[in-house]
Amino acid sequence: MKRTAVAASATAFLLPLSACGGSADAGSGSTVTVTVGYQSKTINTVTAGTLLRSLGSFEKQLNSLHDGHTYKVDWQDYATGAPITAQMTAGKIDIGSMGDFPLLLNAARGKQLGSHTHLVSVTGYNLRGGLNTVVAASGSRLASLKDLKGKKVSTSVGSAADGTLVRALRRAGIDPDKGISKLNQQPAIGASALSSGSVDALSQFVAWPGLLTYQGKAKALYDGAQLNLPTFHGVTAREDFAKQRPAVLDAFLKAQAEATDYLNAHPVTAAEKVAKATGLPAEVVYLYNGAHGIATFDPAVKPQLVSALKQDVSVLKAAKLTGDIDVDSFVDDQYVKKALGTSYAKQLTAAPAPAASEVWPKGSEKTVSFKSARELLTYVAGHQDAVRAAYVPDTTTGTLWFADKAVWVANGDQLLPFVTPSTAQAYVTAHGGARTVSYREALEQAS
Q: Fewest CB within 10 A of the end CB: N or C in the chain?
């Protein structure tokens, strides 16, 4: 999702099908190369990519097979999901990870080219849609989505970020095709365009909105969680590979489960590992992947996510990127069920951790949680030189955001954070006596 642009040229998907990825036909005693496509900077896929690779969990699982083969993992890093799909349908990548909209295109291209793929597990997800955000330049006068009418907006067509933009504009009464000037750009290009002023806003997936906001280059204009529709990233595998090498796929999914357990048990250390591998600030990684981050991680293919995937098809069809997609035949959780064993049923029904305010002290490998945003502000006010990062959940959506970048509202003794100006204003309008205050004012009031 968070996600991955899929607007590649048609030729990119029509690569020769003669190659055989994963050395699937290797005989006994030979070396089997397993090719994994991942996106290091799409950080909600880390349990199937960046973090998994850094931990060496997959290689350890493969070494434990003792089936007469020697295994080698070829890790291939991509900026988006489109080239992973192209390489998978060409038989050159065995296992890949990407966002929900690109997963659908993965399914469509696989069927089209006779190289079927399946969604086999989930990495990071947000049940409300908070992994996608529309941002404007930090000094922009834009204050709500309605202000985008007639403006230039950068997004990656076919990504979940584009899906968020389309749905949000419709709710705001703006025609997504005619009401704005949409530029189809890769995330990095769009980020540069926003910084240079050549576009008015950017709709993107993790980690771009958080990164630009953290850098002081952007402010949130629309929180994807306002849609209240799940967004997620997942793992897809070639059907022929899964059938020929079920033990290898099982090893991958067991390794993913290990990486997931590691991330959940050591969120700060995991954020540091991902930051080191990607060059992203650890504070931004933690915003999404932390203990109370925007994303929740577990491999189970939850019914809510499958339902959301089915709803996403209409957005891709409207954009003429695909026709009908049989989501039920694309989803295949038999492998992750086997890999997780008796814990699968529990993970299938597990709820995300409740939102909480959190401070990451400087020099610490542990964070401090607070029951309320006001308590966090009181702590920050007394330890300003010792705080590496402070995070607060949006009062209405629960989306975590940087405390110093949030929009604050004072309502009596309450100090309430919001991701966007529009949601803060909606609260003020509905609560007599409430008013917006600056972060500095909020700190002073809390202290």
A: C
